[in-house]
Write a structure and sequence with these properties.
This protein is an alpha/beta fold and 302 residues long. It has 13 helices and seven strands. The structure holds S-adenosylmethionine.
Length: 302
């Protein structure tokens, strides 16, 4: 391990499943602070290349510093993985031996950007990671009809009390607009009688708004499809997801790709029939890993 404290989730499993060859070409679609990227980069020679992509320019700067002593060729790209084809336009015909997506955002990242992703810090309710998006979380809670808010919270938060939460939001906004994360968290909390749960009652509602505002699930579908087009034969796509909505998308797309009849298009196979989960030891030392699921797809030579 390096001087950077944080141990990436399922790192041993990721390194094993990637089957890294020193001269290979790899793509980390969610580089973050470069934890996984460093482990891959360390295993590459000066003939190997690591592409590192992230939507957040701040974390990419950290990854750049972290990988500065690795021999591999390095390419850093800021952007959303849903736009991968466009982001790789300067590398026509590029193919990867391995591609990694470690989905989501770190809690420090979400608290730090000041956009109101987390109720643990009282911030303006925005949640747009990309400033060019037109609808913010503030717009959703203050101007969407109640049934629409309920649908969003139910669909993207899997919140059983979505209807009551939406009702509470609408009742609260009649007094004054909901501007800050604390306003929203308190409003959602009124729907839950006791506070004896391990997680804050607003967790699912905040997740739902973040997913909706940033169109995260469609971005994942687009990103996965794009990734499968730039895998070399025998190349592997690894995805680590942290909630069932993401995992379902990964699982279904993998299965659909594997069932495709031999139609001249690339074929794929599941490397592991069962999803890969962190060990008890990892969960004990890294709480974030507790919900992680790793799925691995391989493009087969036809
Ligand atoms: C869980 S962190 C990755 C941590 C990293 N694997 C490590 O070991 O340090 C997820 C990263 O994905 C980025 N991200 C999330 N959605 C993205 C998207 N659609 N396109 C590109 N990057 C994205 C976030 O900015 C965040 O840095």
């Amino acid at each position: 391990m390096s001087e950077y404290e944080h141990r990436p989730v399922l790192v041993d499993e990721v390194v094993t499943c990637l089957q890294i060859t020193p001269e290979g070409t790899y793509l980390d679609c969610t580089t973050g602070e470069g934890g996984h990227a460093e482990e891959v980069g360390r295993r590459l020679s000066s003939e190997g290349t690591l592409f590192m992509l992230d939507v957040d320019a701040g974390v990419l700067a950290i990854a750049r510093e972290r990988l500065s002593r690795t021999a591999a060729r390095k390419v850093f790209i800021r952007g959303n993985f849903r736009d991968m084809t466009q982001l790789l336009r300067d590398y026509p015909g590029i193919g990867f031996d391995g591609i990694l997506m470690d989905l989501g955002f770190s809690s420090e990242q979400l608290a730090g950007v000041g956009k109101g992703f987390s109720f643990t810090h009282d911030q303006p309710l925005d949640m747009r990671l990309d400033d060019t998006l037109t609808v913010s979380a503030r717009d959703v809670v203050n101007s969407f009809p109640e049934d629409r808010i309920s649908d969003i919270i139910f669909t993207f938060g899997e919140e059983g009390r979505a209807r009551q939460v939406a009702k509470a939001i609408v009742r609260r906004r009649q007094r004054a607009p909901i501007e800050m994360t604390a306003d929203l968290a308190e409003t959602v909390a009124t729907v839950f009688p006791s506070r004896h749960t391990r997680i804050h009652p607003a967790t699912k509602s905040f997740q739902a708004l973040r997913i909706y505002v940033n169109d995260e699930l469609n971005a994942l579908t687009d990103g996965l499809k794009a990734a499968t087009t730039v895998l070399k034969p025998n190349g592997r796509l690894l995805v680590i997801s942290y909630h069932s909505l993401e995992d379902r998308i990964v699982k279904r797309l993998y299965l659909a790709l594997c069932e495709r009849p031999d139609s001249g298009e690339p074929g794929f196979r599941l490397v592991n029939k069962k999803v890969i989960r962190p060990s008890d030891a990892e969960v004990a030392t890294n709480r974030r890993s507790r919900s992680a699921k790793l799925r691995v797809l391989e493009r087969v030579q036809r």
